[in-house]
Specification:
It is a single chain. With 387 residues, this protein is α/β, with parallel strands linked by helices. The protein is 28% helix and 21% strand. The protein contains 13 helices and 18 strands. The strands form 4 sheets. Strands 3, 5, 6, 9, 10, 17 and 18 form a 7-stranded mixed sheet that branches. A hairpin with a 2-residue loop joins β1 and β2. The longest helix has 13 residues. It is globular, with a radius of gyration of 20 Å. The two termini are 13 Å apart. The mean pLDDT is 95. The structure holds zinc ion (2 copies). The site of one zinc ion has 9 residues, from α2. One zinc ion (ZN) binds next to α2.
């Protein structure tokens, strides 16, 4: 089959690789019909995530048709159309039973690597380094899905791929980020740093949950326009003092909740650019610092943006003295599959609004560059493995 392989920093190749096979009784094999490139794939592309190896298959946002199931998979049949959550959950450990799926104790066979860095290992993730399990990803024609009896959701309606594909990650990720903000309908104000795909879903989700006002912060005009079209108030961080504007629009208090949908590759601070390039700092927390200062006293800071290591000059005194609650982590995707599919079926949201590029899988190397450099007004790329 064809697969998108990581061959080094900013080196992506589409290669011919062996088809996946059933390895465990709870596996399924899925023929992928649509797959997307995620903002967090750019951290791999740009070389910021350790334990990547040449030839690793990328991708954790995918859906398709079941072509084989292991003997223990009773809920899926060959021919079923499924969306696959990006974290892998066993369904039986303490965390999975508490619906903390991205914290599964059993799905990362390389847990030791993650424990060395973080103390404990989170769940394995498709196509996201050896530290996160070394699983082959979904930017390919086929994928092996472990624990297939507990992860994938069946799509039984005729909704097109573009409307349901993002249940795999960015819709639940934006939704969980908004849910963590304790939104009281008609009262809560939310500021979102970063209007990439996750930021866009955080904005729409905050509004679906009844936020009184959502402020969208970015410096890229087309991303701000998309946020405005969703109903947010756009703030261009290149043109205005975000902190002062937010204060002015919230009666001097600051927003009730802040969402950092940027993560570790934020732009705007030369200090962090230099330190990250010199490997003195793993992540560039520019948006995080701004959000920590801007959020109101006793507010919430919700972080869906991905961080992987150590960060510098974090104003921890600001969030401590203001009594801010910090909420973050990889998304517990499984928890959101059914309720969010229902919102899509009811027409409350059409997730395809975020797609700007639909291209064949074979053009993935170009697509990574276009997305990473934000060329051609690129916000979200969907790849077609059959083309
Ligand atoms: Zn993703
Ligand atoms: Zn588990």
């Amino acid at each position: 089959m064809k697969a998108v392989c990581w061959m080094g920093t900013r080196q992506i190749e589409v290669q011919e690789v062996p088809d996946p096979t059933i390895l465990n009784p709870r596996d399924a094999i899925v023929r992928i019909t649509s797959t997307a490139i995620c903002g967090s794939d750019l951290h791999l592309y740009n070389g910021y995530v350790p334990t990547m190896e040449k030839g690793d298959i990328l991708g954790h946002e995918f859906m398709g048709v079941v072509v084989a199931v292991g003997p223990a998979v009773k809920n899926l049949q060959v021919g079923d159309r499924v969306v696959v959550p990006f974290p892998i959950g066993c369904g039986g450990c303490m965390h999975c039973r508490r619906t903390e799926w991205s914290c599964c104790d059993n799905s990362n066979p390389n847990a030791k690597l993650a424990e060395a860095l973080w103390g404990q290992s989170p769940a394995g993730i498709f196509g996201y380094s050896h530290m996160m399990g070394g699983y082959a990803g979904g930017q390919a024609q086929y994928a092996r899905v472990p624990y297939a009896d507990t992860g994938p959701i069946k799509i039984e309606s005729d909704l097109p791929d573009e409307k349901v594909l993002f249940l795999s990650d960015i819709f639940p990720t934006g939704y969980m980020a908004a849910e963590q903000c304790d939104i009281q309908p008609g009262r809560t104000t939310v500021a979102v740093w970063g209007c990439g795909p996750v930021g866009q879903f955080a904005i729409r989700s905050a509004l679906l949950l009844g936020a009184a006002k959502v402020y969208a912060i970015d410096s890229i005009p087309e991303r701000l326009r998309m946020a405005e079209a969703s109903g947010a108030i756009a703030l261009n961080s290149d043109e205005e003092d975000v902190h002062e504007r937010l204060k002015a629009m919230t009666g001097g208090r600051g927003p009730d909740a802040a969402i950092d949908a940027v993560g570790m590759e934020a732009h705007g601070s030369l200090y962090d650019d230099v330190k990250q390039k010199l490997k003195l700092e793993q992540d560039r927390p520019y948006a995080l610092r701004q959000a920590m200062r801007a959020v109101r006293k006793a507010g919430v800071l919700s972080v869906p943006g991905v961080y992987s290591g150590f960060i510098d000059k974090v104003p921890f005194g600001a969030v401590f003295n203001k009594g801010v609650s910090l909420r973050m982590g990889q998304t517990h995707v499984h928890r959101y599959l059914k309720p969010l599919l229902q919102l899509i079926e009811e027409g409350k949201i059409d997730p395809s609004f975020v797609i700007t590029h639909k291209i064949p899988l074979s053009l993935a190397p170009e697509a990574y560059e276009t997305f990473s450099e934000k060329k051609d007004e690129c916000i979200k790329v969907v790849l077609d493995p059959a083309a």
